[in-house]
Amino acid sequence: MTAKPRRRLILASRSPARLGLLRQAGLDPEVIVSGVDEDALTAPTPAELALALAEAKASVVAAKPEVQGALVIGCDSVLELDGHALGKPADAEEATARWKAMRGRAGTLQTGHCIWDTTAKRYVSGTASTVVRFGEPSDEEIAAYVASGEPLYVAGAFTLDGRSAPFIEGIDGDHGNVIGISLPLVRKLLAELGVGITELWSPAE
User: Fold this and answer.
1) Quick one: pLDDT at residue 1?
2) Bridging pattern class, strands 9-11 and 71-81
3) Comparing C-alpha atoms, which of 69, 89, 77 is closest to residue 173?
4) What is the pTM for the complete model shown?
5) Cα diameter, the chain
6) Alpha helices in the chain (DSSP H)
7) Residues of the chain under the 50 pLDDT cut
């Protein structure tokens, strides 16, 4: 019996964290950045905004002639705090203010996921939510963290797999979702498209 050829997989994101998680799960996607202007999109709620951004990114890349036949994954994350969607801070001043507002509190990391099947010309999407409980870093610790530059490149001005990890007390939900992509949700969305995630695994070395 001839094995089914492995589908080409595209990640419509420049996030090294998302790429790393997918590779750890046995997948090896190509990266094609969408170029979507994230500031141009709006939505009624943070969860809907994250989903709209993910769908926009995946749709732009899925429309490219060079990716026809591939599966395209688009993701976007925002931190929901007091009903507001917080993405990447604009500058160090905003990152500092953000951390002073978050410390000692909990927010919800919303990550929109969209997978396009360019062969079937259809997509599926969904949002994963994880509660993040922040610790209480001192003003000096916040200043040092902001000076590292890391919070300027991540949604919510924090990440679980970087320098801010000691300032996060815990989470309720999917760890990977906070880093940038929910692998359980990816599996479910692929199943909706009739694709088993194990069909996409890279050959074992």
Assistant:
1) 46
2) parallel
3) 77
4) 0.93
5) 63
6) 16-24, 46-62, 92-102, 139-147, 175-179, 183-192
7) 1
What confidence score (pLDDT) does residue 5 get?
78
Closest to 15 in 3D by CA, of 147, 142, 133, 111: 111
What SS3 state is found at 134? strand
Reading the block at residue 51, the tokens are 């989903």
174: which 2 tokens?
């999917």
Query: Which pLDDT score is estimated for 3?
Result: 58
Instruction: Quote the CA–CA distance of 129 and 102 in Å, as a whole number.
Output: 17
- Residue of 28, 76, 82, 172 marked catalytic: 76
Structure tokens at 99: 């951390």
Which residues have C-beta within 8 Å of that of residue 40, sequence separation ≥ 6? none
CA of residue 98 relative to chain centroid, distance = 20
Closest CA to 184 of 142, 130, 148: 130
Coil/strand/helix, residue 150: helix
Pairing relationship of beta strands 9-11 and 30-31 according to DSSP bridges: parallel
76 is catalytic: yes
CB 50 within 8 A of CB 11: no
* pLDDT tens per residue, range 24-79: 999 999 999 999 988 888 999 999 999 999 999 999 999 999 999 999 999 999 99
Taking the C-alpha atoms of residue 80 and residue 86, their distance in angstroms, rounded to an integer, is 6
